Amino acid sequence: MTTMTVVAGGDCTSTLDVVAVRDRHKMCCIMSAFETVSRLSGFADLEDGWCYGEDVAIKKAAIDQGIRLVGHALMIGFTESNAFPGIRGGVQINIYDEADDLELSASGDRIDFLREEWDMEIEECEGLTEDEAIQKIREQWARKDRR
Other CB atoms closer than 10 Å to residue 7's CB: what's the count? Predict the structure, then answer.
């Protein structure tokens, strides 16, 4: 078992400290994704009429698609995510990184994509396949790397 310590204040004084900070950050990212996946899984309990007597139960296909999108975002490098029950049985996934906000509305077969920077809408695409949506997530990460 390896024990790692994070230096108070974030000052890294050795290679071990740098690794500890990196591992702590990675653990925070994993926890964010885990919380999002847990929220998504919980949406399966929502029944018809879950929103003030309106809307339909969340589709399993939408939940599964949302879980896959969160997993891809984490593997690509995004650090924060959240999920919300969507309309007509879908789910909304938000992926955050600093000023960037990606909103993906998954219905189980198609995905609507919205990219915002500093709360300004930059790009919107409707009716994407899952592969196309994952490519949009990758493109956003590549933009971030060039900044």
Answer: 14
State in Å, rounded, how far the first CA of the chain is from the last one: 38
Q: How far apart are CA 108 and CA 122, in angstroms?
A: 25
Residues 6 or more apart whose Cβ sits within 8 Å of residue 129:
110, 111
pLDDT 10s digits, 62-116: 999 999 999 999 888 888 999 999 989 999 999 988 778 999 999 999 999 999 9
In a domain, residue 5? The reply is no
Residue 78 lies in a domain: yes
The one-letter code for the residue type at 32 is: S
Number of domains in the chain: 1
**Residue 6 maps to a domain:** no
Q: How far apart are CA 147 and CA 143, in angstroms?
A: 7
pLDDT tens across 27-38, in order? 677 778 889 999
State the Cα–Cα distance between residues 33 and 97, nearest whole angstrom.
13
